Amino acid sequence: MESTQKTSYNPAAIEEKWQQTWLELGLDKTPQDKNKPKFYALSMFPYPSGSLHMGHVRNYTITDVIARFKKMQGYRVLHPMGWDAFGLPAENAAIDRGVPPAQWTYKNIDQMKQQLKRLGLSLDWDAELATCSPDYYKWTQWIFLQFLEAGLAYQKEAAVNWDPIDQTVLANEQVDSEGRSWRSGAIVERKLLRQWFLKITDYAEELLNDLDKLPGWPERVKVMQANWIGKSTGAYLEFPIVGLDEKIAVYTTRPDTVYGVSYVVLAPEHPLTQIVTTSDQKTAVEAFIKEVTNQTELERTAEDKPKRGIPTGGKAINPFTGEEVPIWIADYVLYEYGTGAVMGVPAHDVRDFKFAKEQNLGVKVVIVPEIGADENLKAAYTEPGILVNSGEFNGINSVDAKKAITEFAEKQGFGKERVQYRLRDWLISRQRYWGAPIPVIHCPECGIVPVPEKDLPVQLPEEIELSGRGGSPLGQLESWVNVPCPSCGTPAKRETDTMDTFIDSSWYFLRFTDATNAEKIFDGGRVNDWMPVDQYVGGIEHAILHLLYSRFFTKVLRDRGLLNFDEPFQKLLTQGMVQGLTYMNPKKGGKDKWIPSNLVDANNPVDPQTGEPLEKVYATMSKSKGNGVAPEDVINKYGIDTARMFILFKAPPEKDLEWDEADVEGQFRFLNRVWRLVTDYAAAGVCKQKVEVDKLSKEEKDVRRAIHLAIQAITEDVQEEYQFNTAISELMKLSNALTDAKCNNSPIYAEGIQTLVIMLAPFAPHIADELWHLLGNKGTVHIENWPSFDPAALIADEITLVIQIMGKTRGSIQVPSQLDKVELEKYARESEVAKRYIEGKDVKKVIVVPGKLVNFVLG
User: Fold this and answer.
1) How far apart are alpha carbons 677 and 736 in whole angstroms?
2) φ/ψ of residue 167, rounded to 5
């Protein structure tokens, strides 16, 4: 027995010490030993806003537990961190404070890096990257050139938000709810600009089909992606225009309703709009177009807004019936979607029905639930049914009619079947400064010329004045814009757009595998060794765009011969939000309804301004609600390990977590109990004897069973479903079993204490290493092997057998666990408990439930 001196649990004293030790040991450096299986654990990297919030802490803690657990299971683990550092906030800060975006960004990175390091995460900081660094965006630009070479990058005109006062392009988030510029207050206009796109639509089918290769993704995320891609099979139909050679093309998933078309609608910006508009409607149509042009896409398609339209005066011919129908334009039809035109079938479409009633347009029923049904509709009939008023297709059920009508249109030459996707090509142009410059040069002789690879990166000029006014900031710097054409030497101009920041985050996970490579984007051997990411952790808000774009980039780079896998992320965990207790005044609207908690007396929650009573709710922590809890406040009071334990214990990782100080206290008390348990044992002397399983006493067998039950349950909880909350419950059970055990100087008890500390390590790494050290062990607990359970240890030698008389429990006895029914009845009959009730009585029946109870039924 070796003893050690007792100390009290002081998180502040041990956490910094062990972080320094891990640093000196190089514990978190990525191993390159290919003899071990690999595991790539990745959290979605943060935007460097300057301060961590509890959502960050939860995300990174979850990934850290997984990374530490896998390392102890014998995997070589890649667990990196970086910064999604380009974007609008840095540019806004530069405009508002006169601080260059790079300076603002790197200062925030330094600040957040120190906060992250304080959390004691097992991150390999040697692999750190920042997307705004030239040695990163050099390769972002190189990837763009790969897309250009593959014919997947192109330019076309597209609408942007335009501030007519500041003469600048605005992001959607810079336009307020009234459609005004955030800076000048001007009514924002829509303006066509020539912009860059990536042809993600070329990969629509594969992006959709390969969702089936992702069993480790939440089903709802896969559904969200499938809906965004929006594959549909329908009919492409052409409606001739009266008096013209032109035709209006429409796409519909309901060709079975085509005999019910009572009007056709063009997008206001459709090229045919000007052609079909009659002279008497010209002024009204132009005014309507001008009004609609200034609306955002969201405003035009919002479900809760009335749909507005105006007749053009032109007419189209329904090719199935020969009938003339009016041509309208309406705000809800967008030129970028489908063909930019829709057929109006009010009887069988909810939106069309409402629009037709408001505009006094005809309603023709062509599908009924059954023959003879009333055709006077009070609402659109959208269910399947039988065709009526549909010529030769009358009497056919609507499902079969879709195919029959499409085939008929194809034979007649005015239609065909078409597969269509809701997904549109990705507009990547941004008329801003703080982003990766698009590496092309516009030459009056050669056209678009890619910047030669040897000249990458095209660096952002540092000496630039950002005002938020005028066109693209880069476009105003002539010394940067004007360059000779790399092909012919003619004076030419650089592209002045920068790339959408989603580009940067669409490949960063690949760079982490070889983050310091200055010669290549990454080494093929290394990227194909580490990828795909085994576990990706992040918020559900990235379920569509970031994940879809990352999948798209992976497939394109695979097709360019750079990768040998199809999907970037094998398993995905979308963690829930962290919610705080929030005070709300139900009589106020907008942001004013939220009352910061520091202004409210918790015992008498009233609005400090009005005195009105406040409601208490849990809502996602945010500055605007004044309900946040600063991570450093919790860490200063309780320590990092307590904060981690609370975050992991309070809720399963995919559920929202309600912050509760009392529960934080509860985890602090638990860690104190573990500290006392282990230090009391260490102070009394650590048992060094070897466990001899065949010589254990009953009490030792019970302790061994508790140990191996805990190993089995915690391993399953962490390995299979990441149910960290139940894993911590199992740690608590093991701690309680060891606290209650009386065989403290047994080698099996020593095994229990060591196992408790080892299994605590991924959850509370600092206290675990300190306790490991106090038990007399050298080095760090984090390189110990994760324990495996012995199935034999789970088999009990004895069980508790309940004795019942007439279904009422009268007592219990201990019996050998392997007894059959006859033997169990014999033990029960001979027990003192049973004898008191059955002696001299007529036992009519005995019910034996093996392993549980014996019930005597008396006459």
Assistant:
1) 9
2) 55, 50
SS (H, E, C) 632-644: HHHHHHHCHHHHH
Q: What percent of the chain has pLDDT over 70?
A: 99
* Tokens at 388, concatenated: 């009526």
> What is the full DSSP assignment across 572-618?
EEEEPPEEEEEEE-TTS-GGGGEE-GGGS-TTS-B-TTT--B-EEEE
Taking residue 434's Cβ as centre, other Cβ atoms within 10 Å add up to 26
d(Cα 254, Cα 348) in Å, to the nearest integer?
Answer: 9
Reading the block at residue 540, the tokens are 């559900």
Amino acid at 439: P
Q: What confidence score (pLDDT) does residue 309 get?
A: 95
Single-letter amino acid, residue 437: P
CA 559 to chain centre: 26
Rounded to an integer, what distance in angstroms lies between the CA atom of residue 222 and that of residue 314?
44
Residue 329 to residue 258: CA distance in whole angstroms: 19
State the pairing for strand pair 853-858/843-849: antiparallel
pTM score = 0.88
- CB 353 within 8 Å of CB 320: no
Residue 457: pLDDT over 70: yes
d(CA 588, CA 784): 57
> Three-state DSSP class for 856?
strand
Nearest-10 crossing angle of helices 661-684, 631-638: 30
Evaluate whether 260 touches 365 at the Cβ level (below 8 Å). yes
